[in-house]
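Exercise 7b. C-alpha cells:
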C-alpha cells in the first residue's frame, strides 16, 4: 500500500502545472510525503541524535549504534565546528541533554565514536548487503523538531563504489620546478592557510616533506596527499641563504581553497569539508546539509543501510554502507571500551 501511495505522490507532482509551484505538502519534506514514510520515521527517531556544542548549537547529527549509548557521526564536522563547551547529545524532540565523550576516531572513514549515557535501544536491523540498486527508495534521519520532519526521503542514484582520496593540503600555489635545481618554489602562500600559520612565505623553496626530498610538483602533491587533514608534517624550506624547518598542520581542501571553488561547487552551496577518500559509498539524492551528516540511511523496511558521510555537491550525497561501519566498530571495540571505562570512572 505504501508503495502505491509513494507512486501516487510522484505522479501527482509530475502532473502539476509547470506554471504553478509544487504545494508544500508534496515537497520532499512536506507533511503528505513524510506521512508516507511514517513507519520508517519511527525507526529513525529511535536512533537519530543531535550533537551539540555549547547551548543549543547543533553541530551535527549522529546515529546510535547499540543500546549502550554509543553514537557514531562524521569526524570532520566536529573537527571544524566553530563552537565550544561541553559535547552534548539529544534524542529527537527530547528536552534533556546527555553529555558525550569522544572515545575513538577512524581517519579512513571519517567516523568518530561518542560514548553517552543514553539507554535508548535502536529499532533498526543492520542491512545484510551493500548492493543497493539505483532508484531504490531510502530515508535519511535528521534532527527535526516539532514543526520540521525527522526524516527526508529520496532514491539511490548510483551503484556502490569507492571514492578516491583527494588528500589534505598545506595551502600554497606552487611555482614551476627549475631543472637541475633542488626543491619546488612557492609562488603564493594562501592567506590564513596551514603554511602561512606555520611561517612559510612567498618565494620559499620546499626541499623535503617528512624527510623525503621533493623536486617536482607531482612529488610534492603525492607527499602531502597521502596524509589526512589535522595531521602535522615536517617541511624543510630554503629561504634565501638559510634553511628553515616548519611544522605544518594540514588543512581541509574545501576550507583552505574556499575562494577557488568550481562553478558546480559554487552552485552547490556548502559541501562537506571531507567528501573524498572512502573505501565504499552508497550514493543517493536525499538533500542534506553538511551538518546533517552522521545520521542513519534506512530502507523502507527500517533496515540500516549505512551512515550518511558526505555532501559532495547539490545532487550527490554519500553514505558509508552498513558492513563498513560494522567493520570499523569491531576494529575499534577495544579502544572504545577502554575510553568509555575511563569516562565512567571520571564521572
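Sequence design result:
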Amino acid at each position: 500500500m505504501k508503495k502505491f501511495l509513494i507512486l501516487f505522490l510522484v505522479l501527482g507532482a509530475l502532473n502539476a502545472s509547470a506554471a504553478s509551484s509544487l504545494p508544500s505538502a508534496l515537497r520532499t519534506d512536506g507533511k503528505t510525503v513524510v506521512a508516507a514514510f511514517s513507519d520508517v520515521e519511527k525507526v529513525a527517531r529511535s536512533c537519530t541524535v543531535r550533537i551539540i556544542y555549547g547551548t543549543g548549537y547543533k553541530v551535527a547529527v549522529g546515529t546510535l549504534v547499540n543500546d549502550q549509548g554509543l553514537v557514531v557521526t562524521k569526524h570532520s564536522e566536529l573537527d571544524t565546528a566553530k563552537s565550544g563547551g561541553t559535547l552534548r547529545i539529544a534524542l529527537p524532540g527530547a528536552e534533556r541533554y546527555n553529555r558525550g565523550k569522544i572515545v575513538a576516531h577512524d581517519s579512513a572513514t571519517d567516523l568518530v565514536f561518542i560514548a553517552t549515557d543514553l539507554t535508548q535501544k535502536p529499532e533498526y536491523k543492520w542491512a545484510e548487503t551493500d548492493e543497493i540498486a539505483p532508484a531504490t527508495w531510502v530515508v535519511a534521519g535528521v534532527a527535526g523538531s516539532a514543526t520540521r520532519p525527522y526524516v527526508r526521503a529520496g532514491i539511490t542514484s548510483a551503484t556502490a563504489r569507492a571514492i578516491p582520496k583527494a588528500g589534505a593540503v598545506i595551502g600554497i600555489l606552487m611555482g614551476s620546478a627549475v631543472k637541475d635545481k633542488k626543491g619546488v618554489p612557492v609562488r603564493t602562500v594562501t592567506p590564513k592557510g596551514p603554511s602561512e600559520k606555520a611561517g612559510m612565505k612567498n618565494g620559499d623553496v620546499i626541499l623535503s616533506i617528512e624527510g623525503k626530498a621533493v623536486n617536482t610538483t607531482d612529488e610534492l602533491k603525492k607527499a602531502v596527499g597521502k596524509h589526512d587533514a589535522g595531521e602535522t608534517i615536517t617541511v624543510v624550506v630554503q629561504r634565501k641563504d638559510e634553511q628553515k624547518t616548519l611544522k605544518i598542520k594540514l588543512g581541509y581542501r574545501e576550507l583552505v581553497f574556499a575562494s577557488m571553488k568550481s562553478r558546480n561547487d559554487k552552485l552547490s552551496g556548502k559541501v562537506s569539508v571531507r567528501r573524498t577518500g572512502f573505501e565504499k559509498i552508497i550514493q543517493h539524492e536525499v538533500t542534506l546539509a553538511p551538518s546533517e551528516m552522521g545520521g542513519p540511511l534506512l530502507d523502507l523496511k527500517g533496515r540500516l543501510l549505512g551512515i550518511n558521510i558526505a555532501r559532495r555537491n547539490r545532487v550527490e550525497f554519500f553514505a558509508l554502507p552498513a558492513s563498513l561501519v560494522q567493520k570499523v566498530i569491531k576494529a575499534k571495540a577495544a579502544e572504545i571500551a577502554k575510553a568509555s571505562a575511563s569516562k565512567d570512572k571520571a564521572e
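Instructor comment: The chain has a mean pLDDT of 87. The chain has ten helices and 20 strands.
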